[in-house]
Design goal:
This protein has no helices and eleven strands. It is globular.
């Protein structure tokens, strides 16, 4: 049974940091491309960062240099480190799994509020 469970969100002031976690079960994350997405109120869901099965990472321009995606094989967990947070980073953050170019499983999200 595939599950992705996000945690680590919260309320922080601008300039603050958070670390989001995505604990996965039912599969080994390192065999897939994993991604973090976010959706702000009234906006569509947008990609934030990805990490592929080779460990290569990619970031949206808006978060480059501030966010870092990583994984822990032993914990089967994908992380998103959020630094130098801005008010415009406020959103619900989701992690997702991609077997072959499409995102087939999603978590329920964790809220990040910067104010």
């Amino acid at each position: 049974h595939v599950q992705l469970v996000e945690s680590g969100g919260g309320s922080v002031e601008p300039g603050g940091s958070l670390r989001l976690s995505c604990v996965v079960s039912g599969f080994t994350y390192s065999g897939y491309c994993m991604g973090w997405f976010r959706q702000a109120p009234g906006e569509s869901r947008k990609g934030v960062a990805t990490i592929d099965s080779n460990g290569a990472t990619d970031y949206a321009d808006s978060v480059k240099g501030r966010f870092t995606i990583s994984g822990d094989n032993a914990k089967n967990t994908v992380y998103l480190q959020l630094n130098t947070l801005k008010t415009e980073d406020t959103a619900m953050y989701y992690c997702a799994k991609s077997p072959h170019g499409t995102w087939d499983y999603w978590g329920k999200g964790t809220q990040v509020t910067v104010s």
